[in-house]
Structure formats: C-alpha cells, structure tokens
Amino acid sequence: MRKRIIAFALSLLILCLTPIQMFAQSTSQATESEVGPMWTHITEFTNSFDISSSGLAQFDTSLYARSNVNKVVIEASIQQYSNGSWQTIKSWTSTSNTNSGYLAQKWYVVSGYYYRLVSTGAVYQNDVLMEQTSFTGSSYWY
C-alpha cells in the first residue's frame, strides 16, 4: 500500500512539472527568436507621445544613424480618429545635416476623440535615400 501511495505521489509530481517544463522551453525559444527592426543604417528610432489633462498633446521623436549618414529627415503627425478613420490634424518635419535628428512639438487637441502619433524617419547619404522607418503609436483618449 505504501508503494502505491509513493508511486501515485510521484506520478502527480511528474504531471505537475511537465507543463512547467514545457512552458519554460517555449518561453526560452520565443525569447531567442524575438527580433527587433533590422536596420542597416539607422541605429535607434524613439518616439514618445502624451496628452495632458488640459488637452496639450506633446511628442518627442529622435533618430540616430551610423556615421556614414549625413542627412536625417523626421516627419511626425498627430492623428485624430473621427468618423471611422484616422485623420491627420497637424504635421511637422525636421531635417538635420548630420547623422542624428530630433523633433519635439506641442499641440492642443479637442476633447472627445482618440489621438495617436505617426512618425517616419529617413536617412540619406549624399542626398540618396539609404533607409526609412516608421512608427505608429498607441491611441489615447482625450
């Protein structure tokens, strides 16, 4: 009888540990296969967007590229969700004749809508487009 209880307890332990081991394997495989943007000239493209309680929307966008890049163009837009689609309500552009660029702006929005930031970064070498990337942020209700 005692052997049966031990065998039963071991069987339960194995059944409980098997899903944990499978989860750990699938998690480590997912982590190993995660891949970020595969840029060749751009090294970093960051974006932040927020709307204050008074309706002041503000964003910061920056782009850094390898040293062979000599021009960076950043375009950013605040979009409003209205009548079933996203509409651009304000856009800005920044051009830098170096290998990095930065664009930050503020704009008051009206209440009762969702808003988001959409930005594009492009890098050039001697006025030849080398690479371009884009970002579409999460929507915020105001």
Write structural notes for this entry.
This protein has one helix at residues 2-33, and strands at residues 42-51, 56-65, 71-82, 85-96, 100-108, 114-125, 128-136, 140-141. Mean pLDDT is 85; it is low at 19-33. It is α+β, with helices and mostly antiparallel strands. A hairpin with a 2-residue loop joins strand 6 (114-125) and strand 7 (128-136).
Summarize this entry quickly.
This protein has 142 residues and is of the alpha+beta class.
Number of domains: 2
Please identify the top-level CATH class of the largest domain: Mainly Beta
Strand content: over 45%
Low-confidence stretches: 19-33
- How many strands, what sense, and barrel or not for the largest sheet? 5 strands, antiparallel
Structural class: alpha+beta
CATH topology of the largest domain: Immunoglobulin-like
Q: If classified by CATH, what would the architecture of the largest domain be?
A: Sandwich
As a percent range, the share of helical residues equals: 10-25%
Shape: flat
Q: What would the average pLDDT be, to the nearest integer?
A: 85
Keywords: Signal
Question: Any chance you could write out the topology, listing elements then pairs?
Answer:
Layout: H1 2-33, E1 42-51, E2 56-65, E3 71-82, E4 85-96, E5 100-108, E6 114-125, E7 128-136, E8 140-141
Antiparallel strand pairs: 1-2, 2-5, 3-4, 3-6, 6-7, 6-8
Give a quick set of tags describing it:
alpha+beta; 142 residues; single chain; Immunoglobulin-like; 23% helix
